[in-house]
Amino acid sequence: MSDIKYIQHLMLLFLVGLQIFEFSNAQNCLSCGALPKLVAPPGGGTVDGAGSVVESIDAGTGCKRYDVTCNAKGFKTVVMGANQQAIQLSQASIGKKTAVLLCNNDGVIEGCNLSDGSVFVTSIYCSTT
Question: So which residues are the signal peptide here (predicted)?
Answer without folding.
Answer: 1-26
